[in-house]
Structures are given as structure tokens and as C-alpha cells.
């Protein structure tokens, strides 16, 4: 009985791992509602060199710590054809401040999309914030980097390694990001049921 249970747990665990995107995979398209009430799709960015997809929310302290850094990333990299697209996967029934009206109040200069369709599952996002750097290969958006924005989730002034910015520099130079994966630090996603 114990062997059967252990096998079932391992089988389920392997399937969950396999369902997550890996570096080198083609990112699935999405079409979600932005805070300006318009639909935004990944395919809308086919004229860009890449996209910085950030799964984030309003209520999580870590997401709040990163708000200004995410704004700065967009301001810096959108002109270089690597804009930010933020996606909120959290259920606003559980966390009212993650509701659409609160998303609108953020006033971000980049799309902030409501994920009521489970896009976070297709990407394998588990935290807020959780970053996926996409590189436009001309045949689709390839995952170039997955993980954290930098090495200091709480204090921007203490950042020593800017993982995402280093990854963007590598991609722009035609190289693989090193590291290509880091551990995302943040609150667990509270998805729509």
C-alpha cells in the first residue's frame, strides 16, 4: 500500500514539473483584460525583441517591494524593445485588494492584466512576483530566463545581482542567460477557483 501511494505521489509530482515551462520552450500566447479594459495578447508584441512577463499582484508584500523596480524596468527596457507585461493571477474574492478596480488604481504605464483564465498555470508561475523573460526568435517567444528580478526582494538599495537585467543583456548579445533560472521569492499565487 505504501509503495502504491509513494508511486502515485512521484507520478503526480513529475507531471506537475513537466507541465511547467522550461528555458528554451516557446511561451504560450494569452489574451487577457488590461486595466484600460482592452484585451492584450502576447502576440501583440511580435514587433518587439522580447517581453518581460511578471506575474504579480497588489496585496503581497514582496510584490509591493518590487513595484518601483518593475516600473523602472519598463521605463528602461521598453525603449529597447523589451517591455513589461504584468499579470495578476490572484482571486479577488480571497484578496479584495487584488480586484480589478484596485489594479486600475495602480496606474502602471505598462499592461497589467487580470488572469482569470489560469495563464499562470501554463507558465508554471508559483509566486508573486515571478518573472519570465521572453526572447522573440521570429518563430515565437522563447523562454530565456525564469525566476527573480534580483537578489534583494525586500531592499532595492541592497541589490548586488540584477538577474533579470543581466539576462536581458545576454539575450541582446545573442547569448544564453547565466543563470537561466533563479528561485522566485514572493507570496504563493492565490488563483481563481
UniProtKB/TrEMBL annotation:
Q: Which residues form the Thioredoxin domain?
A: 21-169
**By its UniProt entry, which SUPFAM superfamilies does this protein fall under?**
Thioredoxin-like
Q: Which Pfam families match?
A: AhpC-TSA
The protein in question is named Thioredoxin family protein
Q: Which organism is it from?
A: Carboxylicivirga marina
Amino acid at each position: 500500500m505504501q509503495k502504491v501511494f509513494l508511486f502515485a505521489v512521484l507520478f503526480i509530482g513529475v507531471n506537475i514539473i513537466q507541465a511547467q515551462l522550461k528555458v528554451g520552450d516557446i511561451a504560450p500566447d494569452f489574451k487577457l483584460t488590461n486595466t484600460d479594459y482592452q484585451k492584450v495578447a502576447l502576440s501583440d508584441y511580435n514587433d518587439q525583441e522580447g517581453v518581460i512577463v511578471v506575474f504579480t499582484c497588489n496585496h503581497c508584500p514582496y510584490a509591493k517591494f518590487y513595484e518601483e523596480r518593475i516600473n523602472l524596468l519598463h521605463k528602461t527596457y521598453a525603449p529597447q524593445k523589451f517591455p513589461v507585461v504584468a499579470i495578476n493571477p490572484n482571486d479577488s474574492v480571497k484578496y479584495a485588494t487584488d480586484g480589478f478596480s484596485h489594479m486600475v488604481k495602480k496606474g502602471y504605464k505598462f499592461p497589467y492584466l487580470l488572469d482569470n483564465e489560469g495563464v499562470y498555470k501554463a507558465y508554471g508561475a508559483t509566486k508573486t512576483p515571478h518573472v519570465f523573460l521572453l526572447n522573440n526568435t521570429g518563430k515565437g517567444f522563447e523562454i530565456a530566463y525564469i525566476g527573480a528580478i534580483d537578489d534583494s526582494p525586500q531592499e532595492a538599495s541592497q541589490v548586488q545581482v540584477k538577474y533579470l537585467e543581466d539576462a536581458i543583456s545576454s539575450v541582446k548579445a545573442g547569448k544564453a542567460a547565466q543563470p537561466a533560472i533563479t528561485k522566485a521569492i514572493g507570496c504563493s499565487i492565490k488563483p481563481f477557483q
